Amino acid sequence: MSTAYEQDFFSWTQEQASAIRAGDLGRIDRKHLAEEVEEMGRSEQRALASRLAVIVAHLLKLQVQTERTPTNEKSWRNSIATQRRQVARLMAKNPGLRHPAILAEILESAWDDGRDWAIREAGLDPDRFPSERIYDLADCLGEGP
Q1: Contact in structure between 91 and 48 (CB atoms under 8 Å)
Q2: Residue 111: other Cβ atoms inside 10 A
Q3: Domain ranges in the chain?
Q4: Which residues contact 16 (CB under 8 A, 6 or more apart)?
Q5: In the predicted model, is pLDDT for residue 35 greater than 70?
């Protein structure tokens, strides 16, 4: 079964779905199917971390980048609002992402990525940006920066 998985992933997925629907457990590639199911969960984690990183980046730019245009500020605030809505939807569909250990890992990743993004976009000295995480989930999901 692993040959189909390695050579034609799409066909393998269709075969696995068919076997599951038919209840034909003998045709199921348990090892690879379990890996793929776990990967789907990790994908949800990455999606949450990515959205939180955008929020972190824009919150940092609002806090640190004092020389900004009204257009930039409006764009950052709009982006924060959009990402907050998307995070709320993602977490509502995936309450398991709220597990403290998982959430801590996601927030650390989002902080690192968001800080790096803000530094690159702002073009300012990295020392102007806090190196330790200063936003928690409540800050990221709050009503306003």
Answers
A1: yes
A2: 24
A3: 42-141
A4: 27, 28, 29, 33
A5: yes
